[in-house]
Automatic annotation (TrEMBL):
GO biological process: one example: DNA replication, synthesis of primer
The protein's required cofactors: Zn(2+)
PANTHER family documented for this protein: DNA PRIMASE
Keyword Oxidoreductase: no
Protein name as annotated: DNA primase
Molecular function per GO: DNA binding; DNA-directed RNA polymerase activity; zinc ion binding
Key word Secreted present: no
Gene Ontology CC annotation, any one: primosome complex
Organism from which the protein derives: Candidatus Zambryskibacteria bacterium RIFCSPHIGHO2_12_FULL_38_37
UniProt entry keywords in alphabetical sequence: DNA replication, DNA-binding, DNA-directed RNA polymerase, Magnesium, Metal-binding, Nucleotidyltransferase, Primosome, Transcription, Transferase, Zinc, Zinc-finger
Length: 492
């Protein structure tokens, strides 16, 4: 294994690898960039061609080509080895008999299960399922490319197949079987009568499955996913990320859809920068995967209530991370898959004409609500919380100005509503500024800047100042303290 690693390092230098992921600039003998592992405005991430390593002075991230790929792609060392082996042309050969790694065994089980599902789908007895997939817009090439399969309705088809080669405990650990609740301790397949979509990590290894029910009866969940396993953590993986990552970086935006069928349809018509959230709101880890490639996302979740709820939570989180969030408007009752099946140009136009989420909801609300008072309340409930999440103050001010103009009210009113949300979210905020008397330490403009820039430490400083103001014998120079605080916050 060590010789393989050295061969890869001989063929790939740190600059070649890192520059495929982020834009580097010359800095003397080194190269620099904004760190992909934490938020920063000024580049503090340096790459040294001489040492063949990288170091970030902001977050202390450091290492070689392997650790960089591990952290950027969200994979383990074996995953990084696979990715870099493919980039360098060095074949990666594992001696199965000598490798005692639990994860290695689980990867083999998942690969074998995937082959089992693929063969099931292609059997003559499952021709009706292939016809269904074709009707949904999936041709043979797409099915093969994405390793789509089928898990039969039998209780133990996969279990009986895998236990011939693998230890039962490992099959269970991989999340493919479940133990019966009865006393006989029998096992049965987790996925039954479902169209199977393998979920891959950033290096292209199968780590989980998502199964879509074939015969919908209203009793069973439409989709079920693998449970958390040593290989699979749902909050850290996006379906299709392994195939979309380079297109996202090249096009400088990602498209996020809800389900597997939506993703396959989007890729089929050329939008290969699409990933799927697998029916849930996005996590910080998932958004960070995308943010390292591009700060821009277009959300195209289903237009039903569940889809809107998921997209709302995801958008809030993405905005708070400093991402630019747009929404693609779909016809009511449609999802990306159904839209593309009817007319791919509708989908193309939806992506092309996507709007920033604040603009999107302003347009939607003004179009759907005639009553002025109800309109104002809805904007207060729906739009302003999104504005409050935007960390870029110039961008935030821009949307406050637009919202105020559309409502026909002063910007101060919208700012005040934004303050309320900010104060509510900062539970550790010790001072209620609405109760401060005429000797308030900040005027209106300074209060605005303060509320938008404070941190928990600064909150405590303000609390101390106000506490001292209300004592008979303050032990600090209040005027001097206020002056220094305003300088620190940059509002003087």
């Amino acid at each position: 294994m060590s010789s393989t690693i050295e061969k890869i390092k001989d063929r790939l230098n740190i600059v070649d690898v890192v520059s495929q992921y982020i834009k580097l600039e010359k800095a003397g003998n080194n190269l620099k960039a904004k760190c992909p592992f934490h938020n920063e405005k000024t580049p503090s991430f340096f790459v040294s061609p001489i040492r063949n390593s990288y170091y970030c002075f902001g977050c202390n991230a450091s290492g070689d080509i392997f650790s960089f790929v591990e952290n950027f792609e969200g994979v383990d060392f074996m995953g990084a080895l696979k990715i870099l082996g493919e980039k360098s042309g060095v074949p990666i050969v594992f001696e199965k008999k000598t490798v005692k790694d639990e994860r290695f065994c689980l990867y083999n089980i998942m690969e074998e299960a995937c082959l089992f599902f693929e063969k099931n789908l292609q059997s003559d007895s499952n021709n009706n399922i292939r016809k269904y997939l074709k009707k949904r817009g999936l041709d043979e090439e797409t099915i093969k490319k994405w390793k789509v399969g089928y898990s039969a309705s039998s209780w133990s088809g996969l279990y009986d197949y895998l236990k011939k080669t693998f230890v039962v405990a490992d099959i269970e650990k991989a999340g493919l079987i479940k133990k019966s609740e009865e006393k006989n301790d029998n096992y049965y397949d987790r996925f039954r009568d479902r169209i199977m979509f393998p979920i891959l990590d950033g290096s292209g290894r199968i780590i989980a499955f998502s199964g879509r029910i074939f015969k919908e009866d209203g009793k069973n969940a439409k989709y079920i996913n693998s449970p958390e396993t040593p290989l699979f953590s749902k909050s850290k993986i996006l379906y299709g990320y392994d195939k979309a990552k380079f297109a996202i970086r090249k096009l400088n935006f990602s498209i996020i859809v809800e389900g597997q069928m939506d993703l396959l349809a989007s890729h089929y018509v050329g939008f290969v920068n699409t990933v799927a959230a697998s029916g849930t709101a996005l996590s910080v880890e998932q958004l960070n995967l995308l943010r390292r490639l591009s700060n821009n996302i277009v959300m195209a979740f289903d237009s039903d209530s569940a889809g809107l709820a998921s997209s709302g939570k995801s958008a809030m989180l993405a905005l708070s991370l400093g991402m630019d969030v747009k929404v693609a408007r779909l016809p009511f009752g449609e999802d990306p898959s159904s839209v593309i099946l009817k007319d791919k140009n509708i989908w193309k136009d939806a992506i092309k004409n996507s709007k920033h989420i604040v603009d999107f909801y302003l347009a939607e609300l003004f179009e759907s609500i005639d009553d002025k008072r109800k309109l104002h309340l809805k904007i207060q409930q729906i739009v302003i919380p999104y504005i409050a999440k935007i960390p870029n103050k110039i961008d935030q001010a821009h949307f406050i100005s637009i919202t105020a103009a559309r409502l026909g009210v002063s910007e101060d009113i919208v700012w005040e509503e934004t303050y309320k949300i900010l104060e509510l979210e900062n539970k550790n905020y010790d001072t209620n500024y609405n109760n401060i008397d005429s000797q308030n330490i900040f005027n209106k403009d300074k209060k605005r800047a303060f509320l938008l820039k404070r941190s928990s430490i600064e909150d405590k400083i303000v609390s101390i100042i106000n506490w001292q103001k209300n004592t008979d014998n303050p032990i600090i120079d209040i005027k001097s303290a206020i002056n220094k605080l305003e300088i620190i916050l940059g509002i003087k």
